[in-house]
Design goal:
The complex is a heterodimer of chains A (about 475) and B (about 130).
Chain A lengths: L2 H21 L3 H23 L6 H24 L5 H25 L7 E2 L2 E2 L1 H28 L13 H21 L4 H19 L7 H23 L2 H25 L3 H6 L4 H9 L13 H9 L3 E6 L1 H5 L3 H13 L3 E6 L9 H8 L7 E3 H4 L8 E5 L8 H4 L18 E6 L19 E5 L2 H13 L1
Parallel strand pairs in A: 3-4, 3-6, 4-5, 6-7, 7-8
Antiparallel strand pairs in A: 1-2
Helix pairs in contact in A: 1-2, 1-9, 4-5, 4-8, 5-6, 5-7, 5-8, 6-7, 8-9, 12-18, 14-18
Chain B lengths: L1 H63 L6 H12 L3 H10 L3 H31 L5
Helix pairs in contact in B: 2-4, 3-4
The chains are: A alpha/beta (about 475), B mainly alpha (about 130).
Chain lengths: ~475, ~130
């Protein structure tokens, strides 16, 4: 395939990728969008295979790599539990990062393959682009590995903090810039290339360890963005339009998701990245004076079932705790029974519910909850005042009214689901422990709140049994 | 006499102008290749940068139109398409200019392929759940 023809094929692939994203504006067009993405990728791969100068042995290696990697990817994608989606995505991001590092290395050892010079004499501009792609790719890799370990419970989700952490990171960042300058100045010194890689691996690791488990939605979005910028950096290095366009699309997408997540917590991206959130507040609460216990009203699942049976409007507020307890299926059964009793049942999703953007929506969809019943924060908040029952299951901080009134609270200013305006609030919870932010929830002590203590799944099952009687 | 003097001075000036013009033309023709060379070096990069910036804007607008309910599938798709980096890996592997580059290329092809298949298939699984239920 000639140069013009392959460029044209890459253009078609770029357009198909844009349409794939555009399809996600509605569930009904999303499946077609995903297929367009696959077709685009297929076109890109075929156009590349048909480039002049491809050797038979090389093509054999490519096909082997595609088969091995594709097989692993397909098996993992089909076996993964939807609750583990966030760690899967983090793992995938790490692979993109590592692939970017390897492609940068390939471009360094065989620059003639990409028309950017000969070994030992690579164009200065290409070296700048190469080292940027390399550094971003390496940071994406090690950062994603830490995010994966935290999400998968292989390491504690607690922030890891030490003295002078931020100074160390800043110093390493400056050192990275110096090394890149030296790499370009020496015309592509091999040792400097690998030094940059090692330093960037370390930096990615250090940047993510201070960030707490529940801030991972922001981290995963941000690493999504980085993987895009890494692809774009490699695209500039090898002068490939498709990589540049796709990298920009992915980079923009991850950046927007990070922004939405931060806004959902009313925190700046800098505040999240500097990390340590929840560590101090949690420690303080544990060490602080116990004080007189404030009275809370608690009830049995049977009480809850009785009240819900007579309700005409029920809003369910699921949080990550529901996913941990695997309670989504039984929650939907409860909703079905209530609908049979003539109630309208709706679901309210906070932007940061779950461990990645949109995670809770997927979990509800998996439990066969119709997506028309699931609403975002702005949409549903006015409806709580008309609701007879708000059923909060596995969510905590995102329902705390203190976020609106208490300026001293760690979560002050965070947009919340206004469940307290419902006639009765049921709060399913194991005990009285505070949420991630380490803040006690005002809601527990309200007159219209009834605590249902116990495992989310068991409590809901008991309600279902009581409703069936 | 006066007119004659003027005519001579005018002629002298005309001759000087002519020689300056010739000099300028020579300089211009000398400079021309240099200008072209400079433009040739700057142009591809600027062209790529232009495309990159425009693609950022397209991404910005398209992604804001994605419904929040589908943000997880969005991550799945972006994950898959960012692995288009496989194109660079394939060139390094297929052209085989150095065995080391070929080895790195092969590793990158394999890693990117995990992502491409994994990303698109897990997204397909997610989206299949978002069917309209009766």
């Amino acid at each position: 395939m000639g140069h013009t023809l392959s460029t044209l094929a890459y253009l078609v692939a770029s357009v198909l990728f844009i349409l794939a994203l555009k399809g996600l504006s509605h569930p009904s067009t999303s499946r077609r969008g995903n297929i367009m993405g696959m077709v685009g990728m297929g076109i890109a791969i075929v156009a590349t295979l048909a480039q002049p100068g491809m050797k038979v042995g090389g093509i054999g290696l490519i096909v082997a790599g595609l088969a091995i990697g594709g097989g692993i990817g397909a098996v993992v994608a089909n076996r993964i539990q939807m609750t583990s989606l966030p760690q899967l995505v983090a793992a995938f991001h790490s692979l993109v990062g590592l692939a970017a590092v390897f492609v940068a290395a390939a471009a360094l050892y065989a620059p003639q393959s990409f028309g950017i010079g000969v070994p030992g004499n690579i164009h200065g501009q290409s070296l700048v682009e190469m080292s940027l792609g390399l550094a971003i790719g390496a940071i994406t890799f090690s950062g994603s590995v830490i995010a994966f370990a935290k999400l998968d419970g292989r390491m504690s989700g607690a922030p890891i903090l030490f003295n002078g952490q931020h100074y160390l990171n800043a110093a390493l960042g400056i050192l990275l810039v110096v090394l890149i300058a030296a790499f370009v100045w020496t015309g592509g010194n091999l040792a400097l290339f690998w030094l940059i890689a090692i330093l960037a691996f370390g930096l990615g690791f250090l940047l993510i360890i201070p960030i707490g488990g529940a801030d991972m939605p922001v981290v995963v979005s941000m690493l999504n963005s980085y993987s895009g910028w890494a692809a774009a950096g490699i695209g500039f290095t090898i002068g490939n339009l498709l990589l540049i366009v796709t990298g920009a699309l992915v980079g923009a997408s991850g950046a927007i998701l990070s922004y939405i997540m931060c806004k959902g917590m009313n925190r700046s991206i800098l505040n999240v990245l500097l990390g340590g959130f929840g560590a101090e507040a949690g420690g303080g609460a544990a060490a602080g004076p116990a004080g007189p216990a404030r009275p809370v009203k608690s009830g049995s699942p049977e009480d809850a079932a009785y009240i819900m049976k007579n309700a005409s409007k029920v809003i369910i507020v699921p949080g990550y705790g529901m996913a941990v307890a695997q309670a989504q299926q039984v929650v939907r059964e409860m909703a079905d029974l209530l609908k049979k009793e003539g109630a309208t049942v709706e679901y309210a999703i906070h932007p940061v519910a779950g461990r990645m953007p949109g995670h809770m929506n997927v979990l509800l969809a998996e439990a066969n909850v119709p997506y028309d019943d699931v609403h975002e924060l702005e949409e549903i908040n006015p409806e709580f005042a008309e609701a007879d029952v708000a059923y909060v299951i596995g969510a905590n901080d995102v329902t705390n009214p203190a976020a609106k009134t208490d300026k001293s609270s760690a979560i002050y200013g965070m947009p919340i689901l206004e469940v307290e305006r419902a006639k009765t609030v049921f709060f399913v919870k194991r005990g009285m422990a505070s949420g991630y932010a380490g803040v006690e929830n005002e809601l527990f002590f309200r007159d219209n709140t009834m605590m249902l203590f116990g495992d989310a799944k068991k409590v809901t099952q008991q309600i279902v049994q009581a409703l069936q009687k | 006499m006066h007119a004659e003097e003027l005519a001579i001075r005018a002629q002298a000036m005309a001759e000087r102008a002519l020689s300056l013009a010739m000099e300028a033309r020579a300089a211009a023709s000398e400079a021309m290749p240099m200008v072209e060379q400079g433009a040739a070096a700057a142009e591809p990069f600027l062209l790529l940068l232009t495309i990159f910036m425009l693609a950022c804007f397209v991404g910005y607008h398209v992604v804001w139109s994605v419904t929040p309910a589908l943000h997880s599938p969005l991550m799945g798709v972006t994950n898959a398409i960012s692995s288009v980096i496989v194109v660079g890996a394939m060139l390094a592997t297929g052209l085989g200019e150095s065995w080391l580059a070929q080895a790195f290329g092969f590793l990158a092809v394999t890693l990117a392929a995990v992502n491409i298949f994994g990303g698109f298939l897990v997204t397909r699984r997610m989206l299949a759940m978002f069917q309209r239920k009766g």
